[in-house]
Write a structure and sequence with these properties.
Chain lengths: 202, 335
């Protein structure tokens, strides 16, 4: 599944770069693709015994290879959620909700951003909430991920109405209105990739 | 824009390889990461690590040397270095006295240096941090401002303090004081092109300039038609003075920094006006540096930096320093 996420991120390189260049410096696509190439290579060579290891390796590789703010933030999103998680052999809704619940907190603490700051948190927090809700309702993994994807998508739309509080778009003020946040778009893309992979591999 | 490169992905590694090949008597690469260290750092001193994105040369690769940084952590082009790069450089320069991190205040640099600092703590290395915040038009609050060419002056004080054998807490205090006294403003004349890219980094009409434009094309305060050097320089000085509030009899160090494309000839013409302006206001210029330390490829424009000096800062400003791109000779007792 993670290899598919990597593939989708690499394919989206130009799209993400273009979104970023409207109000940022345009390197988000290239940065994410660098990270995706690194974790794809590592996941293919390393034998990850459990869910925890896959998340951890993915995050660590992104943090090591990307640089910039995205490297730390997306690295934390993957590796920050499994720190305190007991080892899991299989991924179910409860586990995924627990991972993203923890990682959302870790990213917020690291980046000091909250919902409404026009960052990837605007997609990640609602997606994480959607997973938690789905877990509470006893939904299956596919449906839960689909809910998270939809919540992230709404988060991306929401960022269009916001002025940026972080990053290079910060100095733009109102000029950033109407443009979606590139990091939030990446969060959505990651959940979408998960769902598409499950659809193909069910 | 034509750039002499091979492949975009290899730019940073090949630049480091070429730098080390040129200056291997004095510098070495840190294995496995995009970092370099100075070979002759005196023993038992606090380590100074500076870092940032590649593409602003001679900062940051040229910032290590005698009385300057001991190590440099480099990121990809215009992207902050990774935590493990910073950590490996930190480990290479630590002599048990701790390490001071210096970098311009950008979100990516803050995040990566913060993670590196936590990783260093696990390795029992004390670190402290000073973020350079000199660009006066980038934010109202001093601590939220971006770092531009003033990096060089802050590093100068840090390097001088560390070379004098002061402990980490003192090196940090003096470095932070240098930053508190640091005010810069820039003007953009034309955009640069990131290596490997075909489009310039931002749009600016041929006959226009932008006051306060950031070194990555961050929006400035206003645009106008191009003007003669004296008029342009005076307007910049007036904006800078609104924040710096320099008083009569105050002492300053001045840096006129070119952004890449603007020539030394032009920078001297700017400096001529800066010195006149200071003289008219009875501001004492202790020292002036006209150079291009912090560039953005072939971007046109320049910045003016003032660092207010007192006797304490002057002492560390005057400690001799040398790298292939920065020299401060010993002024001697006679002066």
């Amino acid at each position: 599944m993670f290899l598919h996420i990597g593939e989708e991120i690499i394919n989206a390189k130009d799209m993400l770069g273009k979104i970023d260049s409207e109000i940022g410096d345009g390197d988000h696509g290239a940065g994410m693709a660098t990270g995706a190439e690194a974790f794809t290579a590592k996941l293919q060579e390393a034998s990850c015994h459990n869910v925890n290891a896959v998340f951890k390796v993915t995050g660590m590789e992104m943090m090591k290879s990307m640089g910039g703010a995205s490297g730390v933030i997306f690295g934390t999103m993957f590796s920050g959620g499994v720190k305190n998680l007991p080892a899991k052999e299989t991924l179910d809704t409860n586990t995924l909700a627990a991972i993203f619940g923890e990682s959302t907190e870790a990213v917020k603490k690291r980046g000091k951003a909250s919902v409404g700051d026009k960052t990837m948190i605007d997609a990640l927090e609602p997606a994480s909430e959607a997973l938690k809700k789905a877990a509470g309702e006893g939904k299956g993994l596919y449906d839960s991920v689909a809910d998270a994807e939809e919540a992230a998508n709404q988060g991306v739309e929401y960022t269009k109405n916001l002025e940026a509080k972080f990053g290079r778009a910060k100095t733009l003020g109102e000029r950033a209105l109407g443009f979606q946040d590139a990091g939030a778009t990446s969060v959505w893309l990651i959940f979408k990739s998960m769902r598409v992979w499950m659809e193909k591999n069910e | 824009m034509k750039k002499v490169i091979n492949q975009e992905a290899a730019i940073v590694d090949e630049m480091i390889e070429g730098f080390i090949a040129a200056y291997s008597n004095d510098y070495k690469k840190v294995p496995d990461v995009k970092g370099i260290t100075y070979k002759h750092s005196s023993p038992d001193k606090v380590g100074i690590v500076i870092g940032g994105g590649t593409g602003h040369e001679p900062l940051f690769i040229g910032a290590a040397g005698e009385g300057l940084a001991d190590g440099v952590a480099l990121g990809n082009v215009f992207a902050a270095p990774t935590p493990d790069t910073i950590l490996e450089v930190t480990k290479s320069v630590d002599q048990g006295k701790g390490v001071l991190y210096i970098y311009g205040n950008y979100a990516g640099d803050v995040l990566n240096f913060d993670v590196a600092s936590e990783l260093a703590e696990v390795e029992d290395i004390d670190t402290e941090t000073v973020q350079v915040t000199d660009d006066v038009v980038s934010a109202e609050e001093k601590e939220e401002r971006r770092g531009i060419a003033g990096d060089m002056f802050v590093l100068k004080i840090a390097g001088g303090a560390a070379a004098s054998g002061l402990p980490l807490s003192e090196v940090k205090r003096l470095t932070a004081k240098a930053n508190d006294n640091l005010f810069s403003i820039g003007v953009g004349l034309s955009p640069g092109t990131s290596p490997g890219k075909t489009e310039p980094m931002f749009e600016l009409p041929e006959d226009e300039i932008e006051y306060g434009l950031g070194i990555h094309g961050e929006k400035g305060i206003r645009r106008s038609k191009m003007k003669p050097a004296d008029e342009l320089t005076t307007e910049l000085l007036e904006e800078l003075q609104k924040v710096a509030g320099l008083q009569s009899d105050e002492e300053v160090a001045v840096l006129i920094n070119g952004l890449g494309k603007t020539t030394l000839m032009e920078l001297f013409i700017v400096n001529r006006k800066v010195q006149q302006w200071c003289e008219e206001r009875n501001i004492n210029v202790y020292d002036t540096d006209v150079n291009s330390y912090c560039t953005t490829q072939d971007m046109g424009g320049f910045s003016i930096t003032f660092m207010k000096l007192d006797d304490e800062l002057k002492k560390y400003f005057d400690v001799p320093a040398a790298s292939p791109y920065y020299t401060r000779a010993n002024r001697g007792e006679s002066e």
